[in-house]
Amino acid sequence: TALNAISLFVSIYILNSNITMMKLVALAALAGSAAAFAPAMTGKASTALNAFEGELGAQPPLGFFDPLGMLDDADQDRFDRLRYVEIKHGRICQLAFLGQIVTRNGIHLSGDIDYAGDSFDSFPNGLAALFGPDSIPDAGLAQIVVFVGFLELGVMKDSANGAEPGEFVGDFRNGAIDFGWDTFDEETKLQKRAVELNNGRAAMMGILGLMVHEQLGGSVPIVGEL
């Protein structure tokens, strides 16, 4: 399905069959995802702490957490770029996690995926849909890559990525869609943005966990058999 395709594409460059490598990748990703965010660091205060401890997402229990020093001597543009990447990856991973839940519970698009008459539900879930004897056609994978590239270069852009300045970093409306955002007061907007950040962070860790478990085998509550 389309959701499963998004989920699979997120997995392409992260996963392989080597479980030890999977654990290393997971650890690195967890460290990187926390790098630019969240208020309270023990020890000597840094310039980055003083500059960014009040930013959205710097919240208990970790506070401002930058163990890799990615924001050492950074300016606001550097922070905004990292925040843009965090928001984008969080949104992708939320879709990916949802795709895993939906497709592994037997919900697929109706009809055929190609002119040969192969139905959407005839393909396996997870990595097996990309690699192996029952994977989707190469042309299908190429379409996914091209579509994601189009979104990356032409649609999912904001002021931190070359587009006209929006209301905040990660504002991809580009004057085209609103969904009632402008009807909220400032406090509600900040609360909703904080919720999105937290859900995105959880989804990044969640999809990594699912990819690791897929290699290990077994089942996961709610998601099902991997």
Average pLDDT figure: 75
The helical percent reads 40-55%
Portion in beta strands:
under 5%
- Number of alpha- plus pi-helical segments: 6
Largest sheet: 2 strands, antiparallel
Would you identify the regions where 5 or more consecutive residues have pLDDT less than 50? 1-45
Provide the succession of SSEs.
HHHHHHEE
The multimeric state of the shown protein is: single chain
Main sheet: which strands, in order across? Answer: 1-2
Distance between the termini: 17 Å
Shape: globular
Supply Rg. Answer: 19 Å
Number of β-strand runs: 2
- Backbone structural class: mainly alpha
Short description:
This protein has helices at 2-12, 19-33, 47-52, 76-104, 138-155, 186-216, and strands at 219-220, 224-225. The protein is mostly helical and 226 residues long. It has a two-stranded antiparallel ribbon with strand order 1-2.
Give your account of this protein's structure.
49% of the residues lie in helices and 2% in strands. With 226 residues, the protein is mainly alpha-helical. The protein starts with a helix and ends with a strand.
Give the helices and strands, then pairings.
Elements: H1 2-12, H2 19-33, H3 47-52, H4 76-104, H5 138-155, H6 186-216, E1 219-220, E2 224-225
Antiparallel strand pairs: 1-2
Helix pairs in contact: 1-4, 2-6, 4-6
